[in-house]
Amino acid sequence: MTNDSLQDAQAHSHQATEQQAAVTEHIPVLADETLLGLRLRSGDWAIDGTLGGGGHAARILRQSEPDGRLLGLDADPAAIERATHRFAAEIADGRMVVVHANFAEVETVAQQHGFAGVHAILLDLGVSSFQLAEAERGFSWQADGPLDMRMNPDQEISAWDIVNTWPERDLADLIYEYGEERHSRRIARAIVARRPIERTGQLAELVESAQGGRRGQRIHPATRTFQALRIGVNQELSKLEQVLPQCLRLLRPGGRLAVISFHSLEDRIVKRWMQQEAADFTPDPTHPMGGISKTPSVAIITRKPITAADAEIQHNPRSRSAKLRIAERIQ
Ligand SMILES: C[S@@+](CC[C@H](N)C(=O)[O-])C[C@H]1O[C@@H](n2cnc3c(N)ncnc32)[C@H](O)[C@@H]1O
User: What is the DSSP annotation of 97-165?
Assistant: First the structure.
C-alpha cells in the first residue's frame, strides 16, 4: 500500500465508519485500509472469519459486486443471528454463506461450502462492541454482569470456572501471561481469599483494591486481568495459531490475508508467523549452522503494522490499539 493511498483511505475512514455506525452499532476498525489492502475485485471470493456486526463483511460484499461471494464465520451465535438478519438478501441470492463456527475450523467449513482458493481472508480479532455492551455476557468490568466471557455460550468453561476453581498459582500465571500484569500474584491471592466471586463488578473492585486503588493509572486496574481471563476462556491465542496456516492453504496464489489485532500477544503471533512464512531459510535450533532453504510462501505487504489515524481514534476509541497486518500468498 502506498502512503498516498493509505492517507486517502484514512481520510475517508471517518465518514465511512460514521455511516455504518447507524446500522450496526459496531464501528469496523481500519475498514478502508483493510479493504484497500485486500485488493478485492468484482467477482472475487472471500472469507471473513470474525463477522461480528458485519461492518467489514458489508464492505467486502460491496467491493466484490455483483457476483463475488463471502463466507462469514463467528464463534458467537448472537453475531450469526444478527448477520443472518442483516445479510438476508445476500444470503438469499447466494452471495453469502454464514456459519456458526470457530475460525480454528475455517478450513473444514470452507471446504464444506466450496470456498477453497479464495482471493481474500479477514480476521478482525477480539470482541465486538455488542459483546462488550451486553452486561450479561460478562466481558466488561464497566458493566456489572455474571462472570462469563464465553464467545460461544455452548462452551463449558467460563470465566467463573477459572476465577473460582483454578489453583492460585495457575490463576496468577494466567493473569501474568495473558494480561501482562505485573501484580498477578497479588491479584490471584486476593481472588482466592474472596471466593466465590459471581459478578464482573465484584471482580473489578477486588482487582482494583488488590493493587491499592487507581493511583493515576491511564487504564482501569482490572483491564489486564479481564483481558487475561477472556483470552484464557476462549483460548484465543491457540485458536489464532491454528487458523493462520489454514488461511494460507485456503488462499489462492496472489490472495491476501488481513489480520487486525488489539494487543501485543496477538500481534506478536501474527507478525512472527508472517515473518516465518516469508523467510527463505528455516534455522535448525538444534544445530548452530543448521537449517533448510525453502521457497517463501507469503510476501509481507505491511512491513510495519497499519494503525488508526487520529480522526478514526477520536471517532472510535476501540481503534486506538488496532494493528493491521497483511500478507499475500505467493505460491
Ligand atoms: C472485533 S469483532 C469483529 C467485527 C467485525 N469485523 C465488524 O466489522 O463488525 C470480533 C468478532 O470475532 C468473533 N471471534 C473472536 N474469536 C473468534 C474465533 N476464534 N472464531 C470465530 N469468531 C471469533 C467474536 O465473537 C466477535 O464477534
Answer: EEEE--GGGHHHHHHHTT--SEEEEEEE-S--HHHHH-GGG---SSS--BS---SSTTSS--HHHHHHH
Nearest-angstrom CA–CA distance, 96 and 45: 10
| pLDDT tens, position by position, 237-296 | 999 999 999 999 999 999 999 999 999 999 999 999 999 999 999 989 899 899 999 999
Asked if residues 230 and 127 have their Cβ atoms less than 8 Å apart, the reply is yes
How far is residue 256's CA from residue 39's CA, in Å, rounded to a whole number?
8
Ligand 1 pocket check for 74: Cβ under 6 Å: yes
Question: Do you know the residue count of the chain?
Answer: 331
- Domain boundaries 41-58+69-80+87-124+251-299+319-331, CATH class: alpha beta
Q: All 3 cell numbers of residue 62?
A: 460491496
pTM: 0.91
Domain boundaries 137-234, corresponding CATH code: 1.10.150.170
Distance 253 CA to ligand 1 centre (A): 26
Q: Do 139 and 131 form a contact (C-beta atoms < 8 A)?
A: yes
Q: Which residues of the chain have pLDDT under 50?
A: 1-24
DSSP 77-106: HHHHHHHHHHTHHHHHTTSEEEEE--GGGH
83-96, pLDDT tens digit by residue?
999 999 999 999 99
Ligand 1 mutation pick, 51, 86, 319, max ligand atoms within 8 A of CB: 51
Domains of the chain by residue range: 41-58+69-80+87-124+251-299+319-331, 137-234
Instruction: Give the pLDDT of residue 26.
Output: 81
- d(CA 75, CA 87) in angstroms, rounded, equals 17
